[in-house]
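Hi R.,

As promised on Friday, here is the backbone we talked about, encoded as structure tokens. Could you run it through your design pipeline when you get a chance and send me back a sequence?
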């Protein structure tokens, strides 16, 4: 029996708990607004646009040890989709067991099988353990690119502006 599988609704509480653990690790303990109901709707609602894979604990009855949450993006240059990995998390006590590699390999397998051009993700510049892990897999940093984000009050203001206000 494989430890790797597609997430099911019963996994939502464990995935949400690991999302919260990841936020703590990334020094944003109060940033998670997601709830079990929201996550369940995103992953398993009428038209899911977000997907997850999990790794079961090798010890029966124990919670899942890691997850990858992802969605499709699109490359106008390549003319095909890619996978954006939003979160990859393995519980600290399970790190070093190959579970992160297992999850990333599954996303790469899906991308290859479906003809997608790439799998990409963001990593905080101070997160050396993750950066080293990704480089060891053959992933390359996107030097020369910066991530931009429009959110919060700025998103609301910009998204609420009229066409005349935006072009002014």
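Update: got your reply. Pasting your designed sequence below so it's all in one thread:
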């Amino acid at each position: 029996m494989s430890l790797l599988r597609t997430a099911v609704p019963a996994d939502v509480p464990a995935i949400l708990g690991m999302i919260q653990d990841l936020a703590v690790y990334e020094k944003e303990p109060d940033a998670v607004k997601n709830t079990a109901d929201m996550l369940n709707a995103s992953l398993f609602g009428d038209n899911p646009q977000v997907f997850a894979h999990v790794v079961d604990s090798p010890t029966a009855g124990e919670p899942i040890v890691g997850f990858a949450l992802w969605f499709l993006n699109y490359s106008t240059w390549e003319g095909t989709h890619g996978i954006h990995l939003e979160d990859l998390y393995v519980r600290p006590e399970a790190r070093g067991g190959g579970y992160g590699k297992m999850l990333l390999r599954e996303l790469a397998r899906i991308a290859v099988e479906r003809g997608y051009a790439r799998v990409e993700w963001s990593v905080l510049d101070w997160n050396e353990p993750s950066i080293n892990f990704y480089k060891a897999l053959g992933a390359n940093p996107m030097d020369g690119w910066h991530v931009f984000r429009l959110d919060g009050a700025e998103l609301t203001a910009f998204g609420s502006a009229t066409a005349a206000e935006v072009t002014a």
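One thing I noticed while checking it: Residues 25 and 40 are 23 Å apart (CA to CA).

Thanks again,
M.
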